[in-house]
Design brief:
Elements: H1 3-20, H2 25-66, H3 86-192, H4 209-303
Helix pairs in contact: 1-2, 2-3, 3-4
């Protein structure tokens, strides 16, 4: 029996009893007060029932607006005159929200799969690029070793040339000193009025003084000519030595600059590639961790 019917019967019974008890004014006033309270309670109940029905209708309208298919009302509107129960509407609302949640999770999973495929593709491309850079680094290292080997060979050759040049210079200086010693002795003997001649070898002991002076003058002139030639040869050799030394210094400086520049470029490239590799590995780890977390969240929602 509905609560409204029970209240109506109770009110009618009270009214009948109050008609019998008209002789008791105090009790009648209290009874009237109780009847009015019950009447107000009935109105409030009717208002609440109407509010509940309006809420149910509003939920039904919302379900009609957001339902994917029109099948959520199957079994609800069997009696068109009777409104659906609140529990049935809540169950339909729960099913609709569950359906939307499943679709949202499926869409999120597809989006994550697409992003994961793009990340894997980019990672494969970067790995290929990194392998190419490593191969280039290996090639540059081999070239650097070859250049260093050639530089060592040139350095050894330059050292050998310098050693030979020193030997030639020592020989030349020794010959020059011997000639200068002989000339000095000859000059001293000329000043002293004697000539340095081995006795009795040669034919000079048979010459007269004028002839001997002429011979000595001729020898002195020859020695002077030889000395001039020797000085010219010394100047020429010094010029050649200076040019060779300058050339060797320039070549050595150029080689050192080239090697330093190549080494700095290789170090910079290695540092840059190593940094890019670390950044890519970190980015890939973060993306993979995020995908795993989302997959765990999706799996947890599905389990629920």
């Amino acid at each position: 029996m509905a609560p409204a019917i029970v209240i109506s019967l109770f009110i009618e019974e009270i009214i009948s009893v109050s008609s019998v008890m008209m002789v008791r004014p105090v009790i009648s006033v209290k009874l009237f007060t109780a009847i009015m309270s019950i009447h107000y309670a009935k109105k409030h109940q009717a208002f609440l029932v109407e509010t509940c029905e309006n809420n149910v209708k509003e939920l039904e309208s919302i379900l009609d607006s957001f339902s994917v298919s029109g099948q959520w009302t199957s079994g609800i509107h069997k009696d068109k005159d009777k409104p659906p129960s609140f529990s049935v509407v809540l169950e339909s609302l729960r099913r609709t929200l569950t359906d939307y949640q499943n679709k949202l999770e499926d869409a999120s999973n597809e989006d994550l799969q697409d992003k994961l495929a793009d990340v894997n593709k980019e990672l494969s491309h970067l790995r290929t690029k990194c392998a190419d850079r490593e191969a280039l680094i290996s090639t540059l290292k081999v070239e650097l070793q070859n250049v260093l080997h050639c530089w060592e060979k040139e350095k050894a050759r330059a050292a050998q040339s310098e050693s030979e040049l020193q030997k030639l210079s020592q020989t030349f200086h020794k010959d020059t000193e011997e000639k200068l010693t002989f000339l000095h002795s000859l000059y001293q003997h000329l000043i002293a009025g004697s000539v340095l001649i081995k006795q009795p070898e040669g034919m000079l002991d048979k010459f007269s003084w004028s002839e001997l002076c002429a011979v000595l003058q001729e020898n002195v002139d020859t020695l002077i000519v030889d000395l001039n030639r020797a000085n010219e040869k010394i100047s020429h050799l010094e010029y050649i030595c200076k040019n060779k030394s300058d050339t060797m210094r320039e070549l050595q400086q150029t080689q050192e600059d080239t090697f330093n520049k190549v080494a700095e470029q290789i170090k910079a490239q290695e540092s840059c590639w190593h940094k890019q590799k670390k950044e890519l590995e970190l980015q890939y780890s973060e993306l993979l961790l995020e995908v795993q977390k989302r997959a765990q969240v999706c799996y947890f929602h599905k389990e629920l």
